[in-house]
Amino acid sequence: MRFTELELGQQLQQAVAALGYEETTPIQAAAIPSGLEKSDIVGCAQTGTGKTLAFLLPAMEHVLQHPSKGRHPQVLILEPTRELVIQVAKEAHRLADYAKMRIAPVYGGAKMRSQTDQLRRGVDIVVATPGRLQDHMRRKNVTLRHLQILVLDEADRMLDMGFLPDIKQIISRIPEKRQTMLFSATMPASISALARQFQRDPVAIEMDLDHPPEAIDQTLYPVPRHLKGDLLVAILENMDVASMLIFTATKVEADIVTRQLEQNGIAVACIHGDFSQRDRVAALEGFRSGKHQALVATNIASRGLDVEGISHVVNYDVPEHPEDYIHRIGRTARADATGDAITFVTPDDEPLIYRIEYLLGHKIDRKILPDFDYDVPTPSWARPSAKALLREATKSQSVASRWRSMF
């Protein structure tokens, strides 16, 4: 479907055309008409498939058709991370250059005063993280009693991050007569339960769930734990890497990997929860502009990191949840491009790889890097203690028992 076939008003049609959008993606073609009809929606699709426009366009069309004379928002879009708030608000502002309306990004790590001033002057659309929004609600900087549309974006991630109590508290302050659009990259049972709790007869839209784009070349690289850093450096030095996004399990690991890359002359930035908002934005902008060839991140960047041209995604540590593997590697091969997804695998990671391959429905190719010395002995500092070995053995037995009970 072409955007010109959608029942959008002249202002949004001009905005869409000016931004170069011509053909809708499948999730957009399915969700936008239902959104324009004021239906509740549960929309699930892979990352990078255009979900943002799928809810922004119907919401903004409503604001244009029913302009508010007051200062209270008509649309609330909840996001799990500040990066997603910034990204969605930026896209809304781009559209609003042609369809005038007031948009306020509200997230932690930014100054309360500027957000307070904007909210009190009056806004049409609020894009927010739940925690910071509640701060403003407690201070009476914003009221939701006139809200017409609620969007829960990346709903599965918000539940994973423990936002359900906050979401319930926020929704208790919103009129029951409203449109609720829920978007997610996966459809676990928790999302279905959330839809039943907060929506009325929602239109269900599912697009190729739990499968990354075919344009992504997925590869496993078995490697001893103590050689993962050396292998990463070797890959950057020997492969044609335009830009690489590297995921680690912990903030400490992210810092270690970043230092090792810096010591090998690689332009790298790092982003995780200990960085200030200013530093996180600077790291993302440096990576986006090409100043940094590599960006090391924890799971904070696995959703909503909108950077064109990422040629390689590396799972330095295998994610614990198979769905996170899908989200991580979905950062490459966006907008019909191709990309490589590399996952480092230690012997301890094999149960996690099994779960990922079970979700994908196929095995992932295994490779070794030519001329890399995999036989370097483990240094004494990297050898686990007897207590750690016992703890890992107990954990493995527990995981194995849980998995056996599922089949």
Question: How would you describe this structure in keywords?
Answer:
seven-stranded parallel beta sheet, globular, single chain, alpha/beta, 14 strands, Rossmann fold, 407 residues
Tell me about this structure.
The chain is of the alpha/beta class. It folds into 2 domains: 3-207, Rossmann fold; 216-387, P-loop containing nucleotide triphosphate hydrolases (Rossmann fold). It is 42% helix and 16% strand. The protein contains 15 helices and 14 strands. The chain has helices spanning 10-18, 26-36, 51-65, 82-96, 112-121, 130-138, 155-160, 164-171, 189-198, 228-238, 251-263, 277-289, 322-329, 350-360, 386-405; strands at residues 41-45, 75-78, 103-106, 125-128, 149-152, 179-184, 203-207, 216-222, 244-247, 268-271, 294-297, 312-315, 339-345, 365-366. The strands form 2 sheets. Strands 3-4-2-5-6-1-7 form a 7-stranded parallel β-sheet, with helices on both faces. Helix 13 links the parallel strand 12 and strand 13 (339-345).
- How much is the average pLDDT? 86
In CATH, what is the class of the largest domain?
A: Alpha Beta
Order of helices and strands: HHEHEHEHEHEHHEHEEHEHEHEEHEHEH
Indicate how many domains the architecture comprises: 2
Rounded Rg: 22 Å
> What characterizes the major β-sheet?
7 strands, parallel
* CATH level-4 homologous superfamily of the largest domain: P-loop containing nucleotide triphosphate hydrolases
According to CATH, the fold-level topology of the largest domain is Rossmann fold
Outline the low-pLDDT stretches.
Answer: 395-407
Q: Strand sequence of the main sheet, in spatial order?
A: 3-4-2-5-6-1-7
Percent of residues in helices comes to: 40-55%
